[in-house]
Amino acid sequence: MTVETTFAVSGQHYLFNVQTFAHTVLALGGDAYAYALRDRTTQGVIDDVAGGKSDLGVLFQTSATADEVNAALDAAGLEFVELIQSAPRVALPKSHPMVNASSLSLEDMEDFPYLYFEQDEDSPVAFAEEALASVPRAKSIACTDRASLSELIVALNGYTVTSGILVGISDGAGLNTVPLDTDVKLHLGYVVRKGEALSDIGQRFVDTLKKNLEKYARF
């Protein structure tokens, strides 16, 4: 059964998307509603917003991928609105032998499995949801689901590269983050169709997202 939604957000696999969406729904209240939160690949976020399936999309760029990502957004009739910059961090289990390091390089992690979110087959490496995704790894596992990725990191003593913004959601509870030794910066924000204003609900979501990012982002 297909239910027509009145507000929808598509996003990469970030915990702050979920928390922000939950806060928005709780603040709006109401006896009846039909909303949607969609975890997508980067191309999926672009397609959903460009095609009108979602009101906006939440994603990130890095200082190394921004030009290519923005070109793809422009070609799809979308624009990226930056909310905050952050620094990449290594997410790893609380029991990991490297968890107490003051910072980590990718070389420090080369003996451990690297978990990452799988993208569409034809997507460029710039669409990866992890900074420095182009660096070769000897051990790597692709996932399509955030909970599975988190569970595998813990089970395999692995790691991923993330924003480090792990807030309020159970499937990030088993992980800690350590600063990654890199000059690359993350640019976190949202995408919308060019020339279209956000709805009242959309603006409420964006305002809440910005507050969450400013509260929890690490540098």
TrEMBL record:
The keyword Ribosomal protein does not apply. InterPro entries: LysR_subst-bd (IPR005119). One of its GO terms (cellular component) is protein-DNA complex. Pfam families: LysR_substrate. Residues 37-213 form the LysR substrate-binding domain. GO terms for molecular function: DNA binding; DNA-binding transcription factor activity. Keywords: DNA-binding, Transcription, Transcription regulation. The keyword Amino-acid biosynthesis does not apply. Belongs to the LysR transcriptional regulatory family. This is LysR substrate-binding domain-containing protein.
